Amino acid sequence: MTADPRLLDTQQVASYLGVHEKQVYTLIHDRGLPATKITGKWLFPVHLVDRWLESAVINMPEQLPFLQVARQLLLIAGSDDPLFVRALALFRRLNPVILTLQSRTGSTDGLLALGKGLVHMACAHLVDEHGGYSPSTIQEIAGKDVAVVTFATRNQGVVLRKDEASRIRTFTEALEGDLKWALREVGTGTRALMERELANANRNLSELAHAQTTCDSHMDVALAVHSLKADAGIAIEAVARMLGLAFIPLKRERFDLVIRKEAFFLEQTQEFLSFLQAPQFSALVEELGGYETGESGRIVN
User: Fold this and answer.
1) DSSP string over 221-237
2) Can you tell me the distance from the alpha carbon of 194 to that of 183, in angstroms, rounded to the nearest whole number?
3) How many distinct structural domains can be found in the chain?
4) What angle do the packed helices 10-17 and 21-31 form, to 10 degrees?
5) Which of 27, 152, 224, 294 has the fewest CB atoms within 10 Å, measured from its CB?
6) Residue 253 in contact with residue 125, Cβ under 8 Å?
7) Bridge partners, residue 44, by sequence
8) Residues ≥6 apart with Cβ < 8 Å to 20
9) Distance between CA atoms of 47 and 107, rounded to whole angstroms?
10) Does residue 201 form part of some domain?
């Protein structure tokens, strides 16, 4: 008998497995029973014996998805939005026991992560020919077992410095000007909007000779324009307000939360959805400006 409860000797492991002691040696050599003879006699780490047993189980019951057993953890991926970032920061302060993590990857990659079961929810603002999100696109990428919940409604448009606003009043005029554009990454809803607006104007990105700056977020687009690294870009109204830039509206859109149905009723998910009705969230919306939140928390599908 060993003094360490984490280790079994030959007699103990035979009793543990319900076999004769002589059969233990056969299991070592023929069936891969984990064992060590570093001390001169056979010893068997209990946790490795348990793992060996589990590896041989037939008809293993399906394990619960990780997201269902990960308590006090909220994982989010997807599109970028300043109000959402600030809302998450406030939610963390109000709910310190819930570890809330976000990856700003763009709408498409967020939905892909959701479809693989890697996150509880994805932030998305997808563009279809009618405007708004595309239900078919969401189901194609993330699967059918998802719920779409409105976070907020916002304006997307062209941001530019106020000294340019007197001569540029429309997207078409912006395209005709010799401007350096700040572009979002491929796979983001904002990049899709830019490409759609270019197509409507019978133009394409290759014709924008000065489209040289690529940005990771709406704020990065606004900062590029503000710091003279770019002359114009497509971003949301809120960041134009924050940096004192001119704004030409292009599209009113929803910023949605796409949630896996098995994660929808988890405590941490419901806590966040309830937070959208809290007075602290309303105060945050009013402070930032550029959003409508009358439908926040409403299930779309």
Assistant:
1) HHHHHHTTS-SEEEEEH
2) 8
3) 3
4) 80
5) 294
6) yes
7) 8
8) 14
9) 42
10) yes
